[in-house]
Design a protein that fits this description.
Order of helices and strands: HHEEHH
Helix content: 55-70%
Number of helices: 4
Radius of gyration: 36 Å
Largest sheet: 2 strands, antiparallel
Number of strands: 2
Structural class: mainly alpha
Length: 165
């Protein structure tokens, strides 16, 4: 059921937009640049722009990217080796119980043998991680560390000689 318009509400005619003002802008949209109330805190001044170094950095970003991706690859391989073997053990326990209860030799079940092999597999994953880290990644990380120290010493010396830069 609809009601007729209220008689005290006059009809507002539609006015075309002002030619010099955008239709969405009203004169009261802008806020004052000073605090409205005296107890409002004053905005802190903007921080000074950061100083850029005069010389390019010694290290290359691609080296850091390579080092990060190599460490990531190592973590994934070691984790997936240990967890993958354990997942295989659990899947065989759940879906092939007759295989896991079968005996290998001398009363030792296949499930117990595979469970005991979890420890050497985990140790092998750790050993592989350590070996590849020492052979490939540690020399690169040491080289990048030395380059970073050289860069820090160079920047420190430049700031010491030119403090008002």
């Amino acid at each position: 059921m609809s009601y007729p318009p209220h008689p005290q509400q006059p009809h507002q005619p539609h006015h075309p937009p002002h030619p010099h003002r955008s239709p969405s802008t009203t004169p009261h949209e802008s806020s004052p640049s000073y605090p409205t109330y005296p107890w409002q805190p004053v905005a802190p001044p903007p921080p000074p722009p950061p100083r850029l170094p005069r010389h390019p950095a010694l290290g290359r970003h691609s080296d850091l990217r390579y080092l990060r991706s190599a460490y990531r690859w190592q973590r994934r391989v070691a984790t997936l080796t240990a967890l993958g073997y354990f997942t295989l053990f659990l899947a065989l326990s759940a879906f092939a119980p007759s295989l896991m209860t079968g005996t290998v030799s001398g009363g030792l079940s296949t499930g117990l043998l595979l469970g005991l092999c979890q420890v050497p597999v985990t140790l092998l994953a750790i050993a592989l991680y350590e070996f590849t880290a020492r052979r490939r990644l540690d020399p690169m990380a040491e080289r990048l560390r030395k380059l970073a120290e050289l860069e820090a010493n160079r920047v420190e010396a430049a700031n010491r000689w030119e403090p008002n830069r």
